[in-house]
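[job 0417] fold request received: 2-amino-4-hydroxy-6-hydroxymethyldihydropteridine pyrophosphokinase
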Amino acid sequence: MVQEFLIALGSNLGSSAGGPAATLAAALSALATQGVGLRRVSRFFATPCFPAGAGPDYVNACAMVRAPLSPDELLLRLHSVEQAFDRERIQRWGSRTLDLDLMAMGDRVLPDAETQTEWRALPLEDQTRASPGTLILPHPRMQDRAFVLGPLADIAAGWFHPLLCRNVAQMLADLPPEDRAALRPLPGTRL
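[job 0417] inference complete; emitting structure tokens
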């Protein structure tokens, strides 16, 4: 059965495809070779590196995709595309050639509401050291990150977080004004 997913893309190092924006564009094309169909793609945004000082600034985007895959199968394909663009998993939240994150699959909560809520409430200092052993959807940090919500608002402003009972536009509006102001759309990057 074909499923609809929301994914986030980011790069701050670029790759053999070129700089960060060229890398995102090439990665979107590469997804098609993995049996992942693009439905919508946001503008590309220049965004401050997170956490601050961890490297050069990023280019971020989001895409709505469709695929006849489970969330775990899609995640494996996203990792395969990352690897094709020389992604190395050395440091959590470090610089990277390409980052493809699965944000949501409709209104599904995985593995369950309790686990998702636990990871969503994890203090920042623990987030830097811990990573879940299973896929958690919706992504437990999406509501905190302008670099995800800004691009996501381009393509799915009405997507409703099943546990927070807020849509993307509302979650973006909930962020501090300085976080929203730091999003800088790159001209000519809507695919």
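[job 0417] notes: The chain has a mean pLDDT of 91. The radius of gyration is 15 Å.
[job 0417] exit 0
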